[in-house]
Write a structure and sequence with these properties.
rod-shaped; Rossmann fold; 4 domains; 749 residues; ABC transporter transmembrane region fold; 4-stranded antiparallel sheet; 15 strands
């Protein structure tokens, strides 16, 4: 996978933006359980009372609180509260919210700064608990031992009716009043210390609000709606970030796939025959389609998960521990079990991915062979055999794919079972914590949500661990092609052919061996073709005829020796300049989907209609082209399957003639033509290509007998050269070929 990362450079800005959005999305998702905890703890359990700093206090309550505050603390509290008397000018503006203001003075909080509220809450938490407890003891002295620990020397249970406990406590020494505060600390220390005191003080604040006559239902609803609205806003941010990341991931993945296909195709277009022999056609098609699609799909998922999952995992652990550090072992246990499951699946499934890709290659190969050779299959009644062959390739791929899919099918229920098991364990352990007042219900629910997020993050990682290896296999297959350097390339300091270009061709000591072959197929070839000459090459099957002419356009490079055109070693010239001088008609006629006109313009995009018509007439193709109503606009199907073999050869010849190059190479290009058409075509060619060098490879003596020079090949060596008449006298192999094709009288004539 790392081998193709360099192609991601144009998409770095999109990736950076996606990571930023993922960070926003992850933090938004991590914030939601905390807001849910606040709704449960504060909105439901505490009636919407957020802290221990009341927004309003009765004057009598503040007076009682002062008994347990130092002078500096009392001054700090009074500095942030404003006294309102029933007779104050603006008292009526507050009466509706604080009905008790009609009967007694009320102190109104004058700040909403978070730091100040936190400080005031820590100052007032213990006094509020003490005052609230004393008020309950005043109402029921039997509660004294439970609510008011720390008061010694008094048997409050025998307190006479009507005696105000605050009056008695006011008379106590300051040191004894401090004992009450210390007793509060000791009582709440096992329950969480300051945090537990603050939560208990919120209930005392709620009691004070009720004493003020405030609408507690409205306070609770307002808090829930406020926090709920914040949750909706955060959710909206998360949704926008999620959609944006999905768009950026899809754009990046699609862009990379587009670039890889373009670079892949450009690379293959520069491959020589040696590289094409290394990668089969079916494999190249699979790599440029299926493999790149695999990379695109995995990259899109990776962008969305690779950065998101760690943020969720780490952030979830930190936030979960902030809710309850004592339950860390539950998360650790879940992660260990999940990692064990991932490693097991990884070790079982990953080796199958490379097998799957090779089986896809095999399936494509079988399908391609059958579709291209359909007529041969039918001619030999091999349909059943080929169906069995295809079924076997299909079955192998299906079985391997099913094995991998079954692993995934088993994995998902196990992960869901793990998540549900973690939830049950958290509820079971958390319930005991809540019962012991070590944890609030909302915190337990938030912890459970964080645990699920953590497990889900590892599940996303597991999905990546499974998908990335398969994509890595595909990426390596694509990279193998992209990193393959063509053997045949332009020289660093190319030479240009002299002007005017003539077309002399010379082979000097040329030997050639195919890549990875053990011996040469051509041996020490030496011959010269003068400009304007027609040279025929003939020989038995496998004698090396096509190998000779494939060296001229540098489809292969010579192993030894050199080939010169107009005195320039062809390896010193640019490939484009060399091939621009050659009109090549291959042994196998290749037509491209489109029209006849588009196929002829393949040789020269600027060719006019007259030159195309002339080329078709010389190639003996005008009769079947212009007999069609569409003429040059007639459709050509893929591979030219809507034309006969002879028609395809004539169109291929016409395509080369449109180019008007100084050198023509005909690689057995008349094999599908009848003798009459062959003769007429060669006669027309003589006039049209006069002055051009022409090389004709043929199995037919009739196609080359009029050539200026004929080369006879056998096992890669020239065993005869000369005109037809000379070879008939001097070359036994040529005689055998000629006599086997022509009547003796016709040959002698």
């Amino acid at each position: 996978m790392l081998r193709i990362l360099k192609y991601l450079k144009p998409f770095i800005p999109l990736l950076v933006l996606a990571v930023i959005l993922l960070f926003i999305q992850a933090n938004a998702d991590l914030a939601l359980p905390d807001y849910m905890s606040r709704i449960v703890n504060v909105g439901i359990q505490q009636g919407g009372v957020e802290g221990a700093a009341p927004e309003a206090l009765r004057a009598s309550t503040l007076e009682h609180l002062s008994l347990f505050l130092t002078e500096s603390q009392k001054a700090d509290v009074l500095a942030h509260y404003r006294r309102l008397d029933p007779s104050s000018a603006d008292a009526q503006a507050y009466v509706q919210r604080y009905p008790a203001l009609t009967n007694e003075p009320v102190y109104i909080l004058q700040t909403d700064e978070a730091a100040t509220l936190e400080r005031l809450g820590s100052l007032l938490a213990r006094p509020l608990l003490i005052v609230n407890g004393i008020e309950q003891v005043n109402a029921d002295p039997s509660l004294a031992s439970q609510l008011m620990p720390g008061i010694s020397n008094f048997d409050l249970s025998n307190l006479p009716p009507g005696v105000d406990l605050f009056t008695m406590i006011a008379r106590l020494p300051e040191a004894q009043r401090d004992q009450i505060s210390q007793a509060i600390d000791q009582r709440f220390a096992p329950l969480g210390g300051d945090k537990a005191i603050a939560q208990a003080a919120a209930r005392a604040v709620k009691a004070e609000y009720e004493a003020l006559g405030m609408d507690m239902a409205q306070i609770q609803s307002a808090y829930i709606f406020k926090v709920g609205g914040q949750m909706l806003l955060i959710t909206l941010v998360s949704v926008i970030a999620t959609v944006s990341v999905g768009f950026l991931a899809a754009r990046t993945a699609a862009g990379l796939a587009r670039d890889l296909r373009r670079v892949f195709f450009e690379k293959v277009m520069h491959f020589s025959a040696a590289e094409l022999d290394r990668f089969s056609t079916a494999s190249l098609i699979t790599r440029s389609t299926n493999d790149i699609t695999q990379i695109q799909m995995v990259l899109m998922i990776t962008v969305r998960m690779l950065f998101y999952a760690p943020i969720i995992g780490v952030g979830g652990i930190l936030r979960a521990l902030s809710k309850s550090a004592s339950m860390w072992w539950i998360i650790a246990l879940a992660v260990l079990v999940l990692l064990g499951l991932i490693v097991t699946v990884f070790s079982v499934a990953v080796p199958k991915f490379r097998i799957i890709q090779s089986l896809i290659d095999r399936l494509n190969l079988v399908a391609r062979e059958n579709l291209s050779g359909m007529m041969v299959v039918r001619a030999f009644n091999r349909q059943e055999h080929e169906e069995e062959r295809f079924d076997q390739a299909n079955l192998d791929l299906t079985q391997t794919s099913l094995f991998v899919n079954r692993v995934f099918v088993i994995m998902m229920p196990l992960m869901l079972l793990l998540m549900n098991g973690v939830s049950i364990l958290i509820i079971w352990v958390g319930a005991h914590q809540v019962a012991q007042a070590n944890m609030q219900v909302g915190d337990m629910m938030a912890f459970m949500q964080y645990a699920i997020q953590i497990v889900f993050a590892f599940m996303m990682f597991s999905a990546l661990f499974i998908m990335i290896p398969r994509a890595a296999v595909a990426a390596n297959r694509v990279a193998d092609v992209l990193e393959t350097e063509p053997v045949i390339i332009d020289p660093q300091q190319p030479q240009s052919f002299p002007e005017p270009f003539k077309g002399d061709i010379e082979f000097r000591g040329v030997s050639f061996r195919y890549p990875d072959a053990e011996k040469d197929v051509l041996h020490d070839l030496n011959f010269t073709i003068r400009a304007g000459q027609t040279v025929g090459i003939i020989g038995t099957t496998g004698s090396g005829k096509s190998s000779v002419i494939n060296l001229i356009p540098r489809f292969h490079d010579v192993t030894e020796g050199a080939i010169y055109i107009d005195g320039i070693d062809i390896r010193s010239a640019r490939l484009s300049e060399l091939r621009d001088k050659i009109g090549y008609i291959p042994q196998q006629s290749n037509l491209f989907s489109g029209t006849i006109e588009s196929n002829l313009r393949y040789a020269d995009e600027d060719a006019d209609e007259d030159s195309m018509r002339q080329a078709l007439e010389i190639a003996q193709g005008s009769d079947f082209v212009f007999s069609r109503l569409e003429g040059l606009a007639a459709e050509v199907s893929q591979g030219g399957t809507n034309f006969s073999g002879g028609q395809k050869q004539r169109l291929s010849i016409a395509r080369a003639l449109v180019k008007r190059p100084p050198i023509y190479i005909f690689d057995d290009s008349f094999s599908a033509l009848d003798h009459r058409t062959d003769s007429r075509l060669r006669q027309a060619l003589k006039k049209y290509v006069a002055g051009s060098t022409m090389i004709i490879v043929s199995q037919r003596v009739a196609s080359i007998k009029d050539a200026d020079q004929i080369l006879v090949l056998d096992e890669g060596r020239i065993i005869g050269r000369g005109t037809h008449e000379e070879l008939m006298r001097t070359c036994e192999t040529y005689q055998e070929i000629a006599l086997s094709q022509l009547k003796k009288q016709a040959v002698l004539a």
